[in-house]
Amino acid sequence: MTVMSDTALQAAPATKARGYWATVGRRIARDKVSMACAFVLVLIFASALLAPWLGLADPYQGSMIRRLRHIGTPNYPLGTDELGRDMLARLIYGGRLSLIIGILPVIFAFVIGTSFGLVAGYVGGKLNTAIMRTIDVFYAFPSVLLAIAISGALGAGIVNSIVSLTIVFVPQITRVAESVTTGVRNMDFVEAARASGAGPFTIMRVHMLGNVLGPIFVYATGLISVSMILAAGLSFLGLGTKPPEPEWGLMLNTLRTAIYINPWVAALPGVMIFAVSICFNLLSDGMRSAMDIRN
Amino acid sequence: MFAYIARRIVYVIPIVISVALVCFLLVHITPGDPLVAVLPADASQELAAQLRTAYGFDRPLPVQFGLWLWRALHGDLGSSIATGRPVLTEVLRAVGNTVTLAIAAALIGFTLGLLFGLIAGYFRDTWIDKVATSIAIAGVSVPHYWLGMVMVIIFSVQLNWLPAVGAGPGGSGAWGWDWEHMKYLILPAITTSVIPMGIVTRTVRALTGDILSQDFVEALRAKGLRELDVFKHVIKNAAPTALAVMGLQLGYMLGGSILIETVFSWPGSGLLLNSAIFQRDLPLLQGTILVLALFFVALNLLVDIAQAAIDPRIKRG
Fold this sequence. Notes:
The structure holds 2 protein chains of 2 kinds. Chain A is mainly alpha-helical. Helices cover about 75% and strands about 0% of the residues of chain A.
């Protein structure tokens, strides 16, 4: 007996299968579309972060004599805006605020929604009903309307726009988290942990969180795409950032009057929003199919 | 069926009350005094107190909510601060234009979405599927207000084929079903249709793929059924879910039209909301959001009932 189990132990490392997350990672790394999207996103994030060191023109420095130059003008590769500011610099600097107001709400909602969903799904019963019925109320509003209603009532500003979008996304993430948690709750390993005396907090943190985070994370990644469009949309309406701050949605708004003079420069900020949004969407799709090991 | 409808309607009542509560509270989360928009800048303390009593803002919040709800149930949503006209009249007039836009966009978006979705699901993992899914993902990722601007740039500024803004010649709000008016509808409708097109394509593609891989399809084929008739079974099985998604999308188009309507100056509920926000016209803001949200709730209810009507399994569940 002893001899047998010893050989089994020694043999174990050689046949050790690759872990779940390692497999998922390899599958994503092999997916060309996901990698291309990740590359574009890294490029946009890095340029926004390193903007002051890229040798760009001052994004706030305007000039009355060089307003609305065309794309390809010497020294102004992407032209200039309605106040004569360099578009390339403003698009890259604009990434800083645009990415913050687009991504922060999803991060906040991820933390809050996962907590609500985990508690609702694990505890169940009356608490579940209370949380989920409250969530239902927010589902009675189309998300754009809810975001604009809260933002409009709170008034314009970056903080208010982040708050309103967080409120819009919390219910959606809670719903996903709750349904995943309910699925995991009755599995044998949770029962085993409970039988061995683990408290509810330990079970949720140690045994359940790791099993529910994956799907919620994928969902949240897809939400960033929506959030980028909505956050820039709030600024576009005048409910987000205030001029002269460079931000893609606001830039689209102030350049709207320029579409009769220099249309393609006016459309540029939207290209940035589109690029970030589509990359997060494709990345979310890639992660979802990579995590679906059955295929 | 009747019992099911009755049960669904009962479920909706607490939702409606909560929606009203949220709309009511919107005014009270506003920083500062809700009176700030009505009050002249140099108003005296007495005038402020007088107005506060007149608007009922000095009463406890639950009482205010009760009174507001009672009046709302009787169709009285107060008067717009900017125009002095009843909120309900303003909102209903604007909603008509939004419904016109949403239906036009739904016709385009749903038709293309169903078509692309069925084709992509049937020819899964071929180049046809890749083209259709790429269009779909672009549709759901595009900032639609930007797409609207690009449409105006191409079709109004560069080609001069279609008008850039408004809902009819002469800037009048009256709608008519003739070419002179239709010209104004084309660009906003196409712009609005891209998101539902993308979502319906993705949903229907996934449904079609799932259904085609089920055993009963194999059995139908083994029985010698023609491919076209197999397809009819696929459509029947995909219908309830597809219908639910389309209903939800129609609701989003009605309630989330503010960005598109702002780009095209389309005189609907979104543009009304926009002006309510920037003129700090709180009764109008509150009323518009309430009406739009109730539309959305009613639409969801209708979708649920329609779904149960075509799929008997839902009623039992």
